[in-house]
Write a sequence for this structure.
């Protein structure tokens, strides 16, 4: 794919000044921070200081333009995950993400096209969010939740969800042990005819939908948030 080749080429240039994996995470933060609720200007400034390439800010804009171009031409394409597998993980730690074709088959098998508003989908080892994206292609008014032990995977999944208008949560946690590190809770606000996505970052496990709770904790959690989630899904 032309856009992926160009994406790799730019990161190879960045890689002459710093580790590509480090540069990629800085790029993810550069894309995500403007959509964080309550972000402070100094957070964005500190992020930019982590770019070592003398033309890093310009190159980051080129990378963002590639993502915008991909979004305009292809529905829910995971360019971030393809780049990560090609240039960073190379299969280490078993990090091969689900091919789109398999994701689409799983979505068709498990999700009816007339799924109710607010039906929930969870991927406990979400990687870059491919199965969640397949679910979103299948039905636009689902609540989507993903968890992963890799922080950089969580950031890829979060950016994919924000790019394609998906609502829910990405949690950096161990789904097997229930060890929780942080969560990114994704909402949208309606401004006129536009839906503006944003996220809230939290390290409070009680605010996470995904982290395993007692029955009482779960009832209290969902009672507070059910109406909010359903209201956000109505305009989609």
């Amino acid at each position: 794919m032309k856009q992926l080749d160009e994406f790799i080429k730019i990161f190879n240039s960045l890689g002459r000044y710093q580790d590509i994996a480090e540069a990629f995470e800085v790029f993810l933060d550069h894309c995500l921070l403007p959509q964080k609720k309550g972000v402070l200007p100094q957070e964005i400034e500190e992020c930019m200081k982590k770019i070592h390439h003398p033309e890093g800010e310009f190159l980051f804009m080129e990378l963002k333009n590639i993502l915008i171009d991909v979004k305009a031409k292809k529905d829910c394409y995971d360019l971030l995950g393809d780049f990560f597998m090609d240039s960073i993980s190379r299969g280490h730690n078993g990090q091969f993400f689900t091919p789109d074709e398999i994701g689409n088959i799983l979505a068709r098998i498990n999700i009816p096209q007339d799924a109710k508003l607010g039906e929930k989908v969870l991927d406990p080892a979400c990687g870059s969010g491919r199965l969640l994206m397949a679910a979103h292609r299948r039905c636009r008014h689902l609540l989507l939740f993903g968890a992963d032990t890799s922080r950089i995977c969580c950031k890829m999944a979060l950016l994919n969800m924000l790019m394609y208008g998906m609502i829910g949560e990405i949690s950096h946690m161990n789904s097997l042990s229930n060890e929780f590190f942080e969560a990114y809770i994704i909402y949208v606000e309606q401004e006129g005819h536009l839906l503006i996505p944003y996220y809230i970052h939290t390290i409070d496990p009680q605010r996470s939908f995904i982290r395993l709770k007692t029955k009482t904790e779960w009832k209290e959690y969902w009672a507070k948030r059910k109406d909010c989630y359903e209201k956000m899904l109505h305009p989609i």
Q: What stands out?
A: The mean pLDDT is 90. The two ends are 30 Å apart (CA to CA).
